[in-house]
Amino acid sequence: MFSKFTSILQHAVEALAPSLPLQEDFVYHWKAITHYYIETSDDKAPVTDTNIPSHLEQMLDILTQEEGERESGETGPCMEYLLHHKILETLYTLGKADCPPGMKQQVLTFYTKLLGRIRQPLLPHINVHRPVQKLVRLCGEVLAAPTENEEIQFLCIVCAKLKQDPYLVNFFLENKGKRVDAKGSEGAKEDPSAPDTGQNQNAGPEGAASPTADNEEDSSGAASNTTKSNSNYSLVSSLLNLTKSPDGRIVVKACEGLMLLVSLPEPAAAKCLTENTELCELLTDRLAAFYRALPQSMDPLDIETVESVNWGLDVYNLKEDAAAFTGKRALISFLSWLDYCDQLIKEAQRTAAVVLARAVRERFFVSVMEPQLMQTSEVGILTSTALLNRIIRQVTSDALLQETVYFLLGEETGPETPAGITQNPLRHRLIEHCDHLSDEISIMTLRLFEQLLQKPCEHVLQNLVLRSLSERNYCENKPQDEREPLENGQPHDAVDLEEDPLFSDLSPDNRLSSPDWLSCSPPPSTDHAKPDGKTEVHKVVNSFLCLVPDEAKSSYQVEGTGYDTYLRDAHRQFRDYCGICQRWDWRGSPKPFEKCNLDSPFFEGHFLKVLFDRMGRILDQPYDVNLQVTSVLSKLALLPHPHLHEYLLDPYINLAPGCRSLFSVIVRVVGDLMLRIHRIPDFTPKLLLVRKRLLGLEPEGLSIDHVTLLEGVIVLEEFCKELAAIAFVKYHASASTSP
């Protein structure tokens, strides 16, 4: 009570007294603080019962006022006094001792406000960055400490200052090995018991120092650097400690500070961060812990549709989450931390990003997720595949995406062989799951691959399909006189095509516009090029549209299921794919036959083999499976790679013996369909009824015989229309960009 009265009286006297010059006023407040320690004998009274907080605030106000009255960059006498008399060093000592109780809190606040309010660069001064570094070490020592809030505010302002001038981070890297070498080369050793004078031979004017010359610390406050946990990058270590705080707000702030530090472009800082701190362990261990907290069984639809949450923004509502579905809170926590890892790696300096992403692969994907994906329990496979699908969908950083893909598919890019498909057990297992006995697992795994195909990662396509097509050995390169004779420009067994009203879309007025992205499109194959581009498009498109016999078609009897819908979708999707593939070297014609190794045996690759096998069974598979198989194949057909285009969309390629293409697979399906149509009474009316039921135009009524076959026919017709639209868009894109 007496101290509060004294403080009030002092303020009254100060208000009535004539104003002193700033430096005298500054010195007065500092001496008032030091005199407290000389005169007081009661060190148990909290600092808030003294005048110390008031004097510190006055000192800050004077420094701010002084800077405002001077030209930019000019150091005033008050700041000179603070630097020369090592006031920050003294305050650090008082804060470390926490004398009087609560002093550490006051010191942290003073440092934070000083760095935040003063515009001129302070950290280059040895008498600033040295005590700052020491104070950094005090942060995060005790979890749930009463000073946590002040600690995180202080650490974040330091991080912000380093972000403004990244080179200053070298002051905070304590490479003791280099210091020993440097001192040894000078032929002199420092006496560790010598007092810290604050002087440095490399110091410039006003005590400024070079970060590379002065990154050492007074050993009195430093922890041992013999272990990884007591790292040489104490700023990171303190933030890592605070990420374990029970206070969620402190955790988010600490994560923000780490995000700033990993983005610094200094190579030395990136190396120290990944090699001498526990950042990699924090990211991966917490990711693994959140994953293990998930229920063993979850509905894939819940995993797919749960709202996306940015890290640090998820709001806890346990009652609402539990009412939605079991495990929702755990799932959101996992996805939120995954988002943080992804964003951190995205922002990180390039070499640090690679190391962090590799750690996620080795310490989370391989050690935690792979056993879940390789298990035999169908429930477990379904849940883990759905989670993996969600992970792939959410990852946006290039480095983490690359490591995720390497984990799933391996790093191989050489030609695939039938004997080598088991070389990577996880890749083999996932592709096999596309043809699993469980339709749910098949659909979920096909969705997984569809998600992968839409990611901006060339290795996905190279590993799954392109490496098998690189030599074009699916073609038989016979001289023209050895090939089968053509009738009217078509093989002798081709259907005699009639004019179709659908081809009104081929008129010049309806040609699609051709912006720059269309230059990615492959040109028409030279083996059957015609002077009339429209004739070429007509042939290719008509080949797909006329594959399904008229008696097996039903879309023309239902409004809104025309070919034009697929044209619009194909145009948009092809534009999107060209945007993704633009940076890859895919332009140009297919590799010339004379440069191809046509004698090597062709293997379509494990992935295409499974897709073609499933496509061949389209008349005997569930509707949902067929939709997913054709969806994946259409994504592949949209890709603007010349070999993939030729193999999937050219009906006229001369296949080598024993080889199959997408077109040949569909031809076999149609041949089988022709044999089966005549065995089903009232085939056409039943087909139309099934289509209307699928579209919701007819209510579910009596069961219909052969419904799986009828649904398969409908998917087949729609898929052929989709392939025709894709071929149309790609050929016209190529024509519009060719000279």
Automatic annotation (TrEMBL):
- One Pfam family, please name it: KELAA
Coiled-coil-forming residues are: none
The lineage's top-level taxon is Eukaryota
UniProt cross-references to InterPro entries, sorted A to Z: FHIP (IPR019384), FHIP_C (IPR045669), FHIP_KELAA_motif (IPR045668)
Per UniProt, residues of the FHF complex subunit HOOK-interacting protein C-terminal domain are 604-696
Which stretches does UniProt call biased (Basic and acidic residues)? Answer: 182-192, 476-486
Ranges for the region named Disordered are: 182-228, 476-495, 511-533
What family does this chain come from, according to its entry?
A: Belongs to the FHIP family.
- What name has this protein been given in UniProt? FHF complex subunit HOOK interacting protein 2A
